[in-house]
Structures are given as C-alpha cells and as structure tokens.
Design brief:
Layout: H1 2-11, H2 13-25, H3 30-42, H4 65-77
Helix pairs in contact: 1-2, 3-4
C-alpha cells in the first residue's frame, strides 16, 4: 500500500490524497480500488521468469502473483469489482 500511494503521489497528487484518505477511513473509493488493482497487477516483479523469459522491473518492492491475488481478494471482500 505504501509503495502504491508513493508512486501515485508522484503522478497524481489528488488521486493519492483521495486514496490515502479512503485507506485511513477503511473504505477506498471505487476509483482508488480500481487504480490499486491495476497497479498491483502491472507491478508484478517476481514471476519466476529468467531475464530471457520475462521482464525485470526494478523497484523498491517485490510484488508476486500471490501478492496481486491477496490485494484483489481484499478489494473484492470490500465490495469492489475487480
């Protein structure tokens, strides 16, 4: 969550503020939920692929397919359509 909020803040301060506020209240807006779902999918860096099989994405955190599934399940459990 911290990595997503930080990256979002670099690109869209208003969206980051909306997301942080929602997170602190325990209820992300639909826009923030969809942004998070898309971000976690796009940031999967630990695929088990070799450099020849898939991309390596440098970044401050490692995100696995399992991490993505956990985030998507968490969002669904809160009523968001993913």
């Amino acid at each position: 969550m911290a990595a997503w909020l930080a990256e979002t803040g670099h690109h869209d301060r208003d969206a980051a503020h909306e997301a942080r506020t929602g997170w602190e209240r325990g209820a992300l807006s639909e826009r923030a939920a969809q942004d998070l779902a898309t971000w976690v999918t796009a940031r999967i860096t630990d695929t088990g692929f070799t450099e020849d099989e898939g991309p390596y994405v440098a970044g401050p955190v490692r995100i696995t397919p399992s991490d993505r599934d956990i985030v998507h399940d968490w969002l669904r459990a809160r009523g968001h359509r993913i």
